[in-house]
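hey m, so remember when u said the tokens were messed up on ur end? i reran from scratch. heres the input so u can diff it against urs
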Amino acid sequence: MLNTVLKKACYHQDINGNAGINSPGYDGVGLFVGLPQGQTENYTLWVDGDTYTAGEYFYTSDLTSKSNIQSIDSSIEKLSSIQGISFQWDEEKVAKGSDTRRHMGVIAQEVETVFPELVREDFDGKKAVNYSGLIPVLLEAIKEQQSQIESLEQRIADLEQQSH
């Protein structure tokens, strides 16, 4: 129903500053800002720049919406191949409106080698990371690490008991 209403409420602005809500010719796009025509394939929202919310983001996560559920194994090992970095955007991104301050993140190509489902390419071939998709990986890594800690604590306790 809402999607139908939005489609009827089309707004479109042309050339260099494209903006619209379900504009004709932009199939699958709920809202786009500054996106070249015909470059909307995999995104419902495209914003080239910072966003801000005073609220929260919620992601569909209900068990009834999922199939082929699998555990995330070897999280610590996989995460060890991903480097956390700080960086500044290059001149090309700054020219398109990105700021010059320092940011923190990861390298998409490193993430892609161990979690390809968390990386996508844009229309220019630039890779993007689903950062929130790393949360379950981090959760499992903490559990793995906690298990290792508990095992080591037990070994220490056993060794201390043997020495008495």
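this time it looks ok to me. The two ends are 73 Å apart (CA to CA). if urs says something different then somethings off w ur setup not the seq
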